[in-house]
Amino acid sequence: MEYVRYHGLGNDYIVITPHALEQGLKEGIVLTRCGKNDWDEAVISRICHRNFGVGSDGILFGPLGSDREDCNFKLRIFNPDGTEAEKSGNGLRIFTRFLFDEKLVEEGKEFSIETLGGVVTSKVLDGKGSSIRVTMGTVSFANNEIPMLIHKSDLDREGKEQEGNDSDEEEVNKGKRSKHHSSQLSTSLSTDLFIDCSGEQVLNKFMTIDGVRLQYCCATVGNPHCIIIVDSRSNAQLNLDRATAERFGPLIETNFRFPNKTNVQFLRVLDRNNIQIEIWERGAGYTLASGSSSTACACVAVRLGLCDGNQDVTVHMPGGTLSIGFIRKPDNDGIDHLDNLFPIMTGPVTRVCKGVIDSSEMFEFKMME
Fold first, then answer.
1. CB count in 10 Å sphere of residue 181
2. Are 322 and 10 in contact (CB under 8 A)?
3. CA nearest 324: which of 265, 281, 240, 243?
4. Phi/psi at 33 (nearest 5 deg)?
5. Cβ 41 vs Cβ 82: under 8 Å
6. DSSP strand E in 110-254: where?
7. pTM of the prediction?
8. Tell me: the pLDDT tens digits for 206-219?
9. What is the pLDDT of residues 113-141, one digit of tens each?
10. What is d(CA 56, CA 82) in angstroms, rounded to the nearest whole number?
């Protein structure tokens, strides 16, 4: 079963085509744990495992045919834990490079890709395919679109501890879900802990994580993001480093507020056109770079007035930098609102290698629990 490995600023994916998967099934390499155009989570996790498999931050499965008339291609994106992601900015750039390498798209010609998180348009900017631009769709800060639940303590805009806040959160987190317990979540939480405010803008809210009161914002660009601004007054005690991401990231990712879990970023504003972030990626863990995380963070920085939306925002990550630009579209009232941001991500892609999974032994080996 053939694959091609690429990375976007150290965030690496392997691309597997439907034809390659079918060959793997015919040759008995993938066995019967996944069917044609479908994937078993155990198979995905083993392929992505860096010690017992090929190793990657995820699998890009495509190109698939789209049922939509306005789409040229369809892409499915899988996390290393086996779950399917709605969207990935780096994944979309990598998939674009793969299409270019396979001569399915041409330099400078825009085309569309369907994902679970919506339709995007993409374009190769140079003759090598090393620079890619993706129009990421729309951004929303509304809780019902992210989706997330508003806890009664989140609306404490001054960040003051309310009586019972910590105990309430501890109580709810006792029922923290596994990978699939969003349905369990809705039936196990006490409704009096939450505010009925569908459409609430999730900006400068508060939550208590690991005993620390954090100010946060949320956004969706087709997948959910929770952003902690580390140099804000409320989060001044945090450092912007890997240790902070690894301490708070997994706790926020699986927090009861997020039925589908969430990506987590820690953000520092450097100036009006530059931000720096650390990333904990849903289903993957600590990550050197992320296109959708960069997009969400830039959108939050512009929405809060911390960065300018009329110029590109450069996002600095451990793996390198991405550029996020914006199309500003007036609302029905003709006013150019900050809520109407249409982000455009530009960044590099590097081809690493082409490989072959030529044995079923990888999937048969039993790892210690």
1. 15
2. no
3. 265
4. -80, -5
5. yes
6. 111-115, 118-124, 131-135, 205-209, 212-220, 224-229
7. 0.89
8. 999 999 999 999 99
9. 999 999 999 999 999 999 999 999 999 99
10. 12
